[in-house]
Design brief:
This protein is α+β, with helices and mostly antiparallel strands. It has 25 helices and 7 strands. It has a 5-stranded mixed β-sheet with strand order 2-4-5-7-6. Strands 1-3 form a two-stranded antiparallel ribbon. Helix 12 packs parallel to helix 14 and helix 21 packs antiparallel against helix 22.
């Protein structure tokens, strides 16, 4: 992922470092509360240059303070948070900042409390907990506004804009950036203006607006070069590397990433190294050099164990899993993919707050209010007519809503009921039980690789079924992938006795043609379970997709016992067996009714024939589907 430059604001931690002799002399001359005051001053002064000494000073403060000296306790924990920040142990830094918070809130020192809120927000950002980060930036912004702290306000607005960019709320991001930019320009703060330009470049490249993004990168780079800011220059170089991957200029991307890595190593900047090595991994992956990509992603993961940047770790693990799969290391691919899912779910659960939505709604409301004010200024009469029209539309809508309510509720209930039946038919418990039994058999027989392969295919099928079972249409490529998984698993259960083929007409673009998902699966299940294919020496299933003018012919054929013979046997079956065999046809027919009369307006036809009509044995199922391209979806 591109490297977003997050600007943080340590209110009291960026003072020049004091000489060691001067520190010792100052402390020797102070006693009691004066000593605490001196320890506070020196700890905040030296923490960026000498974290170890600041650590010792903070612990001295905690030893000397009593229960009534809450301000010094808060500042001691604040210093310890800064210490761990400069050591790049963000988890421990967050812990200390949170310890400082209640003491600083009781001390009523708004300036340092604002800095602490800002630092907590930054740590939560690094942990990908964007909702909580936004909450703390709001607290920080409120205090900075009370203090009339222009620089602090600009930093908070800028960082909130960055979070909105991560959430792909680009309009809100630009609004916050513009507010911050106005303050920076008044202060003639060129570095901060360049920081915003860099982040805007990242957002534009992400939106594939490459030329605009490139111009912002160049603007930021020129400013940083003029200021001789090596850290930020390397940040721009990392992002330019990502840009060159996007435009497939791999040789230049390689040079920029390696240049950035050299700078970050010299500065011992772990977060920068993680992003640059991730870029190298993405570059090798784009070039098809999977082993080198794995190596780079492993380096990122190793460094990130110390730093704990969750969103980067999530993306890195996904890329690493894909790289393992490409080189055929399925065991590690599955292991890493499970780790990726754990982190993804963790990030998702952390951001289930309404904070981003709340701020977005507030932003939209304010924007709407401004637009209404402008309209009133231009033409008050136009606004009145607009509101009157809106009122009439709402009244009409309310009337129609009551009219259609009962009918819609009944239809929705029917659709939901059918969707549940479809899902149960596509992935019934009997198949799942048989699949798990097969895995158990492989394990008991010490057939580890067979178990791993079967489990990987089973997991892939389950993921696709759950992902697409409620989609009305999916691409032909996805349908083929689902069928391949399903037939392969069924075939393994029956000892790989049945051959199969999936053929797509060369005139069909499987990436663009859309069809309803998993129409064939119930019939393929019947072929295996009731067509007696596994009892034959030459059992075969054929799935074909053929183009006929503006229609897609979807054919499923087997060489089993056929419908006619099966009907005779059904007369001897139990009532439960008969219901099971007819369930697939019944639910498929209901699905087609909904699809044909639904929003898509399709006209799909189904025919089930005994192949004895063609002088052979088996069953033929044929769907006739109007051609539907993804562009028309």
């Amino acid at each position: 992922m591109p490297y977003l430059l997050l600007l943080f604001f340590f209110l009291l931690s960026l003072m020049p470092a004091a000489a060691e002799d001067d520190i010792t002399k100052a402390l020797d001359k102070s006693e009691g509360s004066k000593r605490l005051e001196e320890l506070q001053r020196i700890g905040l002064q030296i923490v960026s240059e000498n974290p170890d000494r600041a650590d010792s000073i903070a612990h001295q403060m905690l030893t000397l303070t009593d229960d009534n000296q809450i301000k010094y306790k808060g500042i001691a924990y604040y210093i310890l948070g800064d210490v761990e920040y400069y050591r790049e142990d963000y988890n421990l830094a967050l812990q200390h900042y949170i310890q400082a918070q209640p003491f600083l809130e009781q001390s009523n020192d708004s300036a340092i409390l604002s800095g602490n809120y800002s630092n907590i927000a930054l740590m939560y950002y690094y942990k990908a907990n964007y909702s909580t980060s936004l909450s703390y930036y709001e607290k920080c912004l409120a205090l900075e506004t009370q203090l009339n702290d222009s620089l602090g306000m600009a930093k908070s607005l800028q960082n909130m804009g960055l979070i909105f960019g991560n959430s792909q709320k680009y309009e809100m991001q630009q609004s916050y950036y513009k507010r911050a930019m106005e303050i920076y320009r008044k202060m003639d703060d060129k570095r901060s203006v360049a920081d915003i330009a860099l982040n805007l470049g990242v957002a534009l490249v992400f939106q594939k607006k490459y030329e605009q993004g490139w111009n912002y990168y160049q603007e930021a780079l020129k400013t940083y070069q003029a200021l001789n800011d090596s850290d930020r220059i390397a940040s721009v170089q990392t992002n330019i590397g990502y840009y060159h991957i996007k435009v497939k200029n791999y040789e230049k991307a390689f040079d920029f990433f390696n240049t950035a890595i050299s700078v970050f190593k010299s500065l011992d900047k772990k977060s920068g190294l993680i992003n640059a090595y991730t870029g190298l991994g993405d570059l090798y992956a784009a070039m098809g050099q999977r082993n080198q990509a794995v190596e780079m992603y492993q380096i990122c993961e190793s460094i990130n164990q110390e730093v704990g940047l969750l969103d980067i770790q999530r993306d890195n693990l996904l890329s690493l899993s894909k790289a393992y799969k490409e080189i055929g290391d399925n065991m590690n691919a599955l292991r890493v993919y499970e780790q990726y899912n754990l982190i993804k779910d963790s990030i998702y659960s952390m951001n289930q707050s309404d904070k981003i939505l709340e701020l977005e709604n507030r932003f939209k409301f304010q924007k709407s209010q401004n637009e209404v004010a402008e309209l009133k200024a231009r033409n008050r009469l136009y606004v009145i007519f607009f509101l009157l029209g809106a009122f009439l539309v709402i009244c009409s809508g309310v009337y129609m809503w009551f009219y259609m309510r009962n009918r819609r509720m009944k239809e929705n209930h029917r659709v939901l009921s059918l969707e549940q039946k479809v899902l149960r038919t596509q992935m019934n418990p009997h198949f799942i039980f048989n699949s798990l039994s097969t895995i158990q058999y492989y394990i008991l027989e010490n057939k580890t690789m067979d178990a791993v392969d079967f489990l990987a295919d089973f997991a892939g099928l389950m993921r696709l079924v759950l992902q697409y079972s409620q989609e009305e249409f999916i691409t032909l490529e996805r349908e083929r992938e689902i069928l391949d998984y399903y037939i392969k698993l069924q075939n393994k259960r029956f000892g790989d006795k049945v051959s199969y083929e999936i053929i797509i007409d060369k005139e069909l673009n499987d990436n663009k043609i859309m069809i309803p998902p998993m129409l064939a699966q119930p019939f393929i299940e019947n072929s295996f379970e009731h067509g007696e294919l596994s009892k034959k020496d030459n059992g075969h299933i054929s799935v074909r997709f053929e183009k006929n003018d503006n229609k897609l012919i979807y054919i499923i054929e087997d060489n089993g016992i056929g419908i006619s013979k099966k009907k005779k046997e059904d007369n001897e079956d139990s009532e439960i067996t008969k219901k099971h065999k007819s369930l697939a046809l019944k639910i498929t027919a209901e699905r087609l009714t909904l699809i044909n009369f639904g929003k898509s307006g399709s006209n799909i036809d189904l025919k089930v024939l005994d192949r004895s009509e063609y002088g052979t044995c088996g069953t033929r199922v044929q769907f006739t589907i109007p051609l539907k391209n993804i562009s028309s979806n």
